[in-house]
Amino acid sequence: MLRKFPVFMLLLVLLGFLRLSAQEQFSEPDAKLLTTIPFKVLSGGVVILRAQVNQFEDSMTFILDTGSGGISLDSLTCVRLNINLAESDRTIRGIGGIRKVKFLNHASLKLKGLQVDSLNFHVNDYEILSTVYGVKIDGIIGYSFLSRYIVRLDYDSMRMEVFSPGEYKYRRGGFILRPVISSIPIQTFKFKDAEKFQNRFYFDTGAGLCFLLSEEYVRDSAIMRKRKPKPLVTQAEGLGGKMEMKLTTVKEVQVGPYHFKNVPTYIFDDKYNVTSYPFLGGLVGNDILRRFNITLNYRKKEIHLTPNGHYNDAFDYAYTGLGVYFVDNKVTVEDVVKGSPGDKAGFLSGDIILAINNNYSNDIQVYKQMMQNPGEKLRFLILRKEDRMEIFMKPGSILKD
Question: What is the dihedral of CA 238, 239, 242, 247, to 10 degrees?
């Protein structure tokens, strides 16, 4: 027994060492804050920020978009700056169409306190976005940038924090989503209408809306089969231009453990198979996502959400049937849906809005916000050809009975 005891003790020591050594693992260095960048929020929650490209001193306006699989520049911006582009056979796909694109290769993006090199910008026409928001959109920042860093969007302070890759400690509270990320985050969300549903959706901060479903998914899943009233026809914009969509609400959308009631929802005919149905049902946009402070950690395939001061903001239920755009420095009505409140009030395509309720700011963002109150009587001063005239309109509501 005395001879066996040391062997037994040696086995215990070896087993203890094996347990301890099995717990050892290499860890990344801590993520470091590289820069803090101010941003602004446009209608629908879309985030814009300022940056420069290559040696050009002009400060450009970019949309920060998790729904973009790369990084891009506007074609007119490239013409204005006389940027030489490379031809390609590559195409990009969006809800409004498919386009062949040129590239600015091996370029740099310069943000406040940070330069990002070796970027390949594809070039697209973003004139429609500029007219929608009343701000010249020079490009979109997506996966090519977001995949290199840990990015935190704080909608309370209106600041974007950019961290180096590494061990990162999320703020206390909140919830971690674990999406599939190839170039665009894809997350499973639950929602409820006549019944409960669950599907995969794009996590899309570049979409200025709450919730979007493909028409094929709605039809095959019988999501709207008990819908009263029927969805309303409206105008929406996407890659390739304008397109008709239907606008309604669903009873609830769940983001992680967070629940949103009576959520405005677009239904679109996915002609270009953007959602690869039945793989995806649609997308969750930034009019929901802006209600959280968001940390995007693509390398770990994690998105951390913390409810912010906008969490309980009211949704936009207003319906006018007007397609209003900022064209040639004028707030212009370009489309009027037949039978809509705008049509009944007497608006015509081509009307220029000079003022709403004595607000002469010529700011399309302000005017759109003023039209977000269903039932409120608004006084419009418009210019129709050479004549000034008054029109009164009460926005309707998309809320179902």
Answer: -20
List the alpha helices (DSSP H) in 272-385.
286-289, 341-345, 364-370
Ranges of H-type helices in 299-400: 341-345, 364-370
Under-50 pLDDT residues of the chain: 1-15, 17-21, 401
Q: Which domain holds residue 87?
A: 33-163
Number of domains in the chain: 3
Domain assignment present for 221 = yes
The phi, psi pair for 27, rounded to 5°, reads -125, 150
Identify whether the C-beta of residue 327 lies closer than 8 Å to the C-beta of residue 351.
no
d(CA 284, CA 205): 8
Instruction: Say which residues have a Cβ less than 8 Å from residue 204's Cβ, sequence separation at least 6.
Output: 65, 66, 67, 184, 283, 284, 285, 286, 289
Q: Are residues 196 and 257 in the same domain?
A: yes
Predicted local distance difference test score (pLDDT) of residue 285: 97
The verdict on residue 332 lying in a domain is yes
Task: Write the DSSP string, 381-400.
Answer: EEEETTEEEEEEE--EE---
Render pLDDT for 239-253 as a digit per residue (tens, 0 to 9).
666 788 999 999 999
